[in-house]
Design goal:
The complex is a heterodimer of chains A (130) and B (231).
Chain A lengths: L8 E11 L1 H9 L13 E3 L6 H13 L3 E7 H6 L1 H6 L6 E5 L12 H6 L5 H8 L1
Parallel strand pairs in A: 1-2, 1-3, 3-4
Chain B lengths: L1 H20 L1 H49 L19 E6 L11 E4 L7 H4 E3 H14 L10 H9 L6 H16 L8 H41 L2
Antiparallel strand pairs in B: 1-2, 2-3
GO molecular function, one term (chain B): unfolded protein binding
Pfam families (chain B): Vma22_CCDC115
Organism (chain B): Rhodamnia argentea
Chain lengths: 130, 231
Amino acid sequence: MAGRTPIASKSSALIAMIADEDTVTGFLLAGVGNVDLRRKTNYLIVDSKTTVKAIEDTFKEFTSREDIAIVLISQYIANMIRFLVDSYNKPVPAILEIPSKDHPYDPAHDSVLSRVKYLFSAESVASGRR
Amino acid sequence: MGEGEATGSIEIAGQNQHKDEGGEVGFEAKDQNLNILEFLDSLDSYLILMDSLSSTLRQGWFELAGARHSMGASRINSALLDLKNHSAATHLHANHHDFESSAREPLFRLCKWASSVDTRECCSSGDEIGKEKLQEKFDGTQLRRRGTAPSSELQEKVSKDGVSQPVVNNMVQKERAKSLSVFGTLVSPKLRAAQFSFETALETLVQIANMRSSMLSAFDEVKKELDVMKP
């Protein structure tokens, strides 16, 4: 429609999780777990048997669902599908990379920080000064 | 000295000239600096919040491990997770607005244990909760009471009219107990503590999500300005 002005609307949305068992269990204790009529959950527990394809498919599913506003993904899992996470650039759902028990948070791998570190590269500073 | 005075007068003249022609140029440079400052501030806040999240999660994992130790590994297991149809007790309210707008309103608001409570009363911006928690931390007077959590006090503050506060607290406690009941009727206090830690982590995550949005918005502004400056 021409001349449509954006309207700030509030809608209820879920937090999705792709993480290890302890992290998912902890957040489920906090009440974020959702199971719909088709037994589809808003979380994926990743263990040693989970394939990269399964993680990719779940990531794609969560980022295309309209009822999910934030996707939490352990950073070590995000590293397995880094190309997919880095190529995602929509504002909602927001992808937040979180640490896990065995893999502390590394700012160097965070997809949001790698997008903005362009500003700190020598090339961008030099080209701005010309 | 003469040269110094001359230099000073040239500088002042330069500034005046800068002001005259460039009242516009001056304003643009000021805007640019403000955008850069905003970007750097939000980046700094983002990193501080991530650090806070890491320590909260570490505490939660530690408490969960303690609960598993006292209750047994078979009682705290993903196999026990409820796969029956149920909706999330804690969810978000997302403001969908044009991300090019300069609105400063948080994008996400966390609604904890909202399934049995009027959502207007329990939704809080992560920023408000964050400020409360930060104040409590600095005061050092917050004591963790068994069976209750500081967030229940926040629920009291948020719910001002309509449903009475004790009723709201009871509902929230019931939701918490329901969430814990997946792991049995009698649960370790460490599991309750883990629940509280992960609730705190959720609040931090909402703040991180809003800060991320501010950071990317400020980054876009700075990038636009840099692109304009390029030949």
